[in-house]
Amino acid sequence: MAVSEAAPARRFTGIDIATLAYVGLATVALLLSFQGDPIPGWGWLFVAHALLVLLVFLAPRARAGGAAGRFLGEWYPMLLLAALYGEIGVLTLDAGFQNDLGIQRFEAWVFGSQVAYRWIREEPNATLSWILHSCYLAYYPILYASPLGLWLVGRREASRRTIFAVMVTFYFCYVVFLFFPVAGPRYAFDAAHNAATNVGPARFAQWLLDHGDSWGAAFPSSHVAASVVATGMALRYWRTLGWVLLPFTAGLVVAVVYGQFRGRDARHHADRRGRGAAPRARGEPRCGTGRQRLVVRVRAGVHAAVALFRLQPHAVQPQEVSQVLSIQ
What we know:
By secondary structure, this protein is an all-alpha fold.
């Protein structure tokens, strides 16, 4: 009797506890947003967090039910990935480029230049682009094929462990996005226009990102991290499935760099949000014309960064550097 009436917390699985922890941290990020002007619709985000907590508490009961309940009780975090990712773009919309320069400097120190900027421009290979962008578009099939394949062949415990590993990876990346948002080369640099960007998979990938990307979610790449983990778990529990996923995952890792993911410039992002204002540094007041503020910040930041990394021949002007540093 004591076992059957165990406390609810004992019926929680690792994924339930990880989800509760993430919701708690996301709520902290939402509360911190009130240091400036409140996010429009912030009340709905609190409601969404409360509903997710309720879902976590209902999950043990669902898993004790029939087949459908067991599936939903195990899979609910994977089914909510799009919503969780979308919330990041709301909470980090005003983050601006405050962390980008440091990441760009680190990448330049490691690789000697901005590879994401230079590679697709200096080597615009249509065949390579078609292959790599096709691998990039395989992101969701990779992500779900690993746990779903294990689930369908009856390896339920392996599927549960895969879901847990993938979601913990996502939660870790998402927490970094919330508290250390990086816009990335997709927004910092203009998009390349050449034979490599004109192939069908490249155009479709850009269209998807234009309509579903989240600001501040560039570093670390959750696409890469989660795909690698999903493929690694498949290799561990069902080697045949893992070997099928491996080449697509390797291509995705390379595609993130070659495709300059993670460029539209930030003006597209601001216009798409319909706010008519630029992403701003935390604590910066909303004042002045959004487009004017955006042009000053983006152009100054990009021009100075490009010059610093020797992608352009002109020297960095002191006023450009000061404008970049003022973002922080």
